[in-house]
Design goal:
Oligomer: single chain
Largest sheet: none
Number of helices: 12
Distance between the termini: 17 Å
Radius of gyration: 31 Å
Strand content: under 5%
Length: about 250
């Protein structure tokens, strides 16, 4: 099962972290008396993790890049269709001289893969078309086919193939980034969850402070318009508090 960040969105975790660290500083003596784990570099370690998560390159950036690449890729693939229509026309005119049936020339199959956005399938079918052109060059040329058309078809197909490789690499990069980011988010979340649970344990006798450490209370404050950490820390004790869910 994946780690659940309570009801927080990932981008909210650094704000939650800053809030909990401020409360930790306020109540630091209580934490340190409870356990030596909260002494020494604990604050600096958590602060560094908050900054690391805040500064991470976010997957949405790569998603936007991939979206643009995909649009360029499909646009390039679509440019193949008019060239294939010309090939089909020449093949039909030369049908009696071809070594294969017109329906087996590969044009229809290649166009189908383009419309399906199956770029690997497009590249495979185009190899068949190109081979059939080579095998029937004289017959096609006699009906109007030119070397220039063949070069244009080859160039567009090659460009489509290369764009597909670039897109696949960017998708792999996104997956790696998501995996890395997830590790960093999870590490931060463990710190935050520990601060929340320990804070509630230590502040049971002080309702306002106890409520401040509750995740259900924190999420309500974090999502307030223009809320900041200092305002939340100094909040009045008569604030309504949403019951904690376990």
């Amino acid at each position: 099962m994946g780690v659940s960040f309570y009801k927080f969105r990932q981008e909210e975790l650094p704000v939650v972290g800053e809030l909990l660290l401020q409360m930790f500083l306020r109540d630091q003596s209580a934490f340190e008396n409870f356990s030596p784990e909260y002494k020494g570099e604990f604050f600096t370690i958590v602060e560094h993790q908050i900054k690391k998560v805040r500064d991470l390159t976010q997957a949405p950036t790569l998603r936007a890049e991939i979206k643009k690449m995909t649009a360029d890729l499909y646009s390039c693939a679509d440019e193949i269709i008019p060239k294939l229509d010309l090939i089909a026309a020449y093949a039909k005119r030369a049908s009696e001289s071809l070594t294969i049936k017109v329906n087996d020339f590969g044009v229809t199959q290649a166009k189908k893969e383009i419309r399906k956005r199956n770029i690997e399938g497009v590249c495979t079918k185009m190899k068949i078309v190109e081979q059939n052109i080579a095998n029937n060059f004289d017959a096609l040329q006699a009906r109007g086919y030119t070397l220039n058309l063949g070069r244009e078809l080859n160039e567009i197909t090659q460009k489509t193939y290369e764009l597909n490789l670039i897109q696949e690499e960017k998708i792999r990069e996104k997956k790696q980034l998501v995996a890395y980011n997830k590790t960093e988010f999870i590490l931060l979340w463990h710190f935050l969850k520990d601060l929340s649970e320990t804070g509630k344990l230590l502040m049971k006798g002080e309702k306002q402070k106890y409520d401040g450490y509750k995740l259900s209370h924190i999420i309500k404050q974090v999502r307030k318009p223009k809320a900041n950490v200092e305002e939340i820390i100094n909040e009045k004790s008569n604030q309504d508090v949403v019951p904690e869910q376990v």
